[in-house]
Write a structure and sequence with these properties.
heterodimer; A: 84 residues; alpha+beta; two-stranded antiparallel ribbon; 3 helices; 21% strand; B: 264 residues; alpha/beta; Rossmann fold; eight-stranded mixed sheet; 8 strands
Chain lengths: 84, 264
């Protein structure tokens, strides 16, 4: 007999369902916003090009899921900084 | 001038057709004029749930193709005055109808009826878009489970993009006993996740099966929990202030019961 089972309460299935849903919906709702991602990339590039020289097509942006949250990963390889 | 309300869910089998039949019947029973439009072309079912299948002669397709006048295609309910059905064609496909044609039918119907309910097919394809085309408001039906809520969220997003407002929610088949045990997503959790206004909660009611077998909507079954919940929603839709009853009870005895069931 497993005594730990007697004393640790199992997480209720409704709590698991709610947590899973929150994660699923975060992902679903984000996928709908694909256009905003392109716009963000364009606008970020515009701002950064005031300070750095780089070619537009070398820019790489993506979202990664890490546990319960999302991380925005952006690569902006630049050749030189501008002298301001 | 009435209003056009699309009843939709994304996921199939959550009770769109049952809810359309019952809400429509309930509103007609309290004196409103109601037309139910089946938008599930090729897989029609509203006529069966209403028990009107033998009376259907013409469909919305016949109206569009001008085989008959609109009022000739409307089937009168057997029990309730001022309640009619516009059936869907069973021989056609979802993309045989254009959104503008559906919109036109809805426009004409709302000039005559207080409530035009459009029963949407499941899915997010053409059939759903046709059903939503003529609607100014929406009722989302969901059951308290992960799949249905996920699909409801997707549908809400699509309806908001079409500027359909308000979008209200009906939670169907909620079992208070399972919620109490922690084995069903609660009303409040569904509302937190979907973040739209609640129109009502329909408790799990096995009487629905017999009522569908007979082709008599549940609301005729006085005193059944499902019937009462639909009647309350109908009254709410006519502007009466009917509170949504809480389905939990937290007296000492039920807490004791919960404690025991948890520790079994």
């Amino acid at each position: 007999m497993d005594f730990r089972k007697l004393f640790t309460r199992k997480t209720k299935s409704n709590n698991i369902a709610t947590q899973r849903l929150q994660l699923i919906l975060k992902q679903d709702r984000f996928e709908v916003g694909e256009d905003s991602m392109k716009k963000l990339q364009y606008e970020l590039t515009e701002v950064l090009s005031k300070y750095f020289e780089f070619t537009m097509n070398s820019v790489n942006m993506s979202l990664k899921q890490e546990g319960n949250s999302y991380v925005l990963i952006a690569d902006f390889p630049f050749s030189e900084s501008k002298n301001l | 001038m009435g209003k056009v309300i699309v009843i939709t869910s994304g996921k199939g089998g959550v009770g769109k057709t049952t809810s359309t039949a019952n809400l429509g019947t309930a509103l007609a029973m309290i004196g409103k004029t109601v037309v139910l439009v089946d938008a599930d072309i090729g897989l029609r079912n509203l006529d069966v749930v209403m028990g009107l299948e033998s009376r259907v002669v013409f469909t919305s397709m016949d109206v569009i193709e001008k085989n008959c006048d609109l009022d000739k295609a409307l089937v009168k309910d057997r029990r309730v005055e001022q309640l009619v059905l516009l059936a869907a064609s069973q021989r056609n496909r979802k993309d045989d109808i254009k959104p503008e044609q559906m919109q036109d039918i809805c426009e004409r119907l709302k000039e005559i009826y207080d409530f035009v309910f459009v029963d949407s097919p499941a899915g997010i394809e053409q059939g759903f878009h046709n059903a939503a085309a003529g609607a100014e408001e929406a009722i989302i039906i969901t059951t308290p489970d992960v799949s249905a809520i996920r699909d409801a969220d997707r549908i809400i997003g699509l309806l908001q993009n079409q500027n359909i407002e308000p979008i209200n929610l009906i939670i169907n088949r909620l079992s208070p006993a399972l919620v109490k045990k922690g084995n069903m997503i609660s009303k409040n959790d569904v509302l937190d996740i979907l973040n739209i206004d609640l129109l009502g909660v329909i408790p799990e009611d096995t009487g629905v099966i017999a009522s569908t077998n007979r082709g008599i909507p549940l609301v005729h079954n006085d005193g059944s929990p499902g019937a009462e919940a639909y009647m309350r929603i109908a009254r709410r839709m006519t502007g009466q202030r009917i509170p949504i009853p809480e389905m939990r009870d937290d007296n000492f005895f039920s807490k004791l019961l919960t404690w025991f069931s948890r520790n079994q």
